[in-house]
Amino acid sequence: MIRKQQMEIDNYEKVAVTPRFCYFKPKVMTNSTMAQEIAFSLSQKKKFISSKFFYDDVGSETFEKICDLPEYYLTRTEFEILDEIKSDLSEYLADNFALVELGSGSSVKTRKLLEILTCKQKDVEYYPVDISDILKDSSINLHDEYENLKITGIIDNYETGLEFIRTLDHTKKLVAFLGSSMGNFSPKEGMEFLEKIHESMSVGDMLLLGLDLVKDVKILESAYNDSSGITADFNCNLLLRLNKEFGANFDLTKFKHVAVFNKKHRRIEMYLKSLTKQHVFMPVIDLFLKFKKDELIHTEYSHKYTTSQIKKMTKRTGFRLVHMWNDKKNYFTMALFAVEK
Ligand code: AVI
């Protein structure tokens, strides 16, 4: 039986689930911030919805299904690389390291890193950071699997996670940012985010970054246009979410999922396309929207990288690139960085 003991720390509620697992969650729900952001982004000439709003409970579950799709090679390939490099990686992790994971999701790939750390260390501290409540279930699973694991979760955005990282000055940290989640930032935002990660780390800490590489357009586009329509559901769930949370009347039969590779910017661009001229009203935020036929709502960028681009990018952020490992097909890369004096 799980014992729950609650404690208040500033704006966060701390929930102690067991002596080895607790998590922090903001006390104030951020629905009004979301309302403001949506009102702004859908009132622009080029309408957009931030991809961070994909991850309500339904969206998070749908994303887990995407990760298992035959066309979505990213998760599978990253997992294979992690499995391959376990012994290489463990040489770089000779001291005691705490593991911080930005965007931990279902924590499936985390197991590969924990296998290394729990083997070498008597106790391992794990700090998963995820915007979704999925963190609770995935942490409990890990907690039950690894007896020497102590978990402190942060259910919030990456920025808050980084604030937590700053306070952990007792052990060296391995920060993992996997799944090519950095690709969802623009290159400029990605650089700024890497700089922020760098600022919140100390000398001796390491960063493990998983990034998707540029490849054949057909492979890229089918990863985001899967034959079973799961990615389309993931995209359309944004509109369902607005119907549920803001009383909007989006008719899902009048919007279509679109995902195309933009060669110039090396990114998959995802949109929701209005199939007719139509009006939508969102009473909760008093927003009236007009759509032309074929008008697009931009919902996500997923940038793909080249090796030289990664090298250049990281030099500018202050990290030293220690090693890069690719899979045999060069679909995906895992890059290990060090923080130096
Ligand atoms: C989370 N992120 C790295 C995924 C991606 O591939 O950009 C999100 C996703 N969007 C559609 N399919 C998966």
From TrEMBL:
Recorded hits in SUPFAM superfamilies, A to Z, give: S-adenosyl-L-methionine-dependent methyltransferases
UniProt keyword annotation of Cell inner membrane present: no
Q: Which domain of life is it from?
A: Archaea
Any one GO BP annotation for this protein: methylation
* Residue ranges of every copy of the Histidine-specific methyltransferase SAM-dependent domain listed in the record: 35-337
Q: Which Pfam families match?
A: Methyltransf_33
Extract the GO molecular function terms from the UniProt entry. methyltransferase activity
Keywords recorded for this protein, A-Z: Methyltransferase, Transferase
Keyword Transferase among record annotations? yes
What protein does this entry describe?
Histidine-specific methyltransferase SAM-dependent domain-containing protein
- Organism of origin is Candidatus Nitrosotalea okcheonensis
